């Protein structure tokens, strides 16, 4: 029988009190992970998780909440509840708090944020149920219903500037109400999740919640979990995003000259290096961007230039570039991590093709007062595999799947019926 696609994550506004289940049965202990497809929206360069075949939720690595516009009638959460306390753990700094209204029962207010514009709102904290697909690491298997997932309502206007198909935002940050945290606690999964972002809108990448294996189609199929390099994840007490301990940058194996302490964050949570799926390209503060751009320009001085295309600071004539398995043959860029490890960025993730004859360095200047020293953006994450091991506060990464002859779009989302 022909294979059927199992793009299963559905949200319904039901106020369940039952435990997680599979077709009415208790959640099976042998299930180690869940999987969902990730799609790239080419018009915004954002990524969405398919919550069913016709609903997309923007994937936000730094978001502490799951949020979406609610129907007029929806369940609410009491303001003296544990969930309400968790919702207030990372209050958006530019979002004014709503004064408490003296009414009984007291219901909880959440503050959802648009990850692109930074616009915030206030609305009810609510409950929803989630249905995802379990996986054996090779294919989706059974549908799993997860009841009473805490989420936030939001006005429809908060969806402005997000992909046209997006109906909300799925926050994956290190917070109690982020999607991974709730799945871990409700399903007793190991505290790991992984993302593999696709490089085009044609075929999906994959998000996993739980533990390995994670097989991608190749010859033979490869479990990428066995090929990961690990580095420490730093915690910022004022921001639930995922920060890396970065010691420097190198171009063509030569260190870029700037003060390494610029990459650290201060006691107020400013600065540092974080990973973002909401920033389309890696952004550097001007004090780092300028020497980095100079270093890359020097390393590519033999390559003919092309007119600059905003927002990029350097563009090359791509007809003069050779091609390799990992993209254009240009000098590699290394993000130098603690412990002597490097996150190496090759041509497929360093140059952006902007027209038939022009490829630009896909890093942008965030200005001298950028909130973070460096934000590793989505383009640099495409066809990379990232495993967030929250129990051990570490990140497992494979900077490109292209080197092992596969891509993020090669997880097999079909099930033979």
Automatic annotation (TrEMBL):
Organism annotation: Musa troglodytarum
GO biological process: proteolysis
Sorted UniProt keywords: Signal
Family listed: Belongs to the peptidase A1 family.
Cited InterPro entries: Aspartic_peptidase_A1, PEPTIDASE_A1, Peptidase_aspartic_dom_sf, TAXi_C, TAXi_N, Xylanase_inhibitor_I-like
Classification lineage: Eukaryota, Viridiplantae, Streptophyta, Embryophyta, Tracheophyta
Peptidase A1 domain: residues covered: 42-398
Keyword Signal in record: yes
Name of this chain's protein: Aspartic
Top-level taxonomic group: Eukaryota
PROSITE patterns: PEPTIDASE_A1 (PS51767)
Pfam family, one: TAXi_N
PANTHER family: ASPARTYL PROTEASE-RELATED, OS01G0937200 PROTEIN
SUPFAM superfamilies tied to this protein: Acid proteases
Coiled coil: none
Transmembrane segments: none
Signal peptide residues on this chain, from the entry's feature table: 1-24
GO terms of molecular function: aspartic-type endopeptidase activity
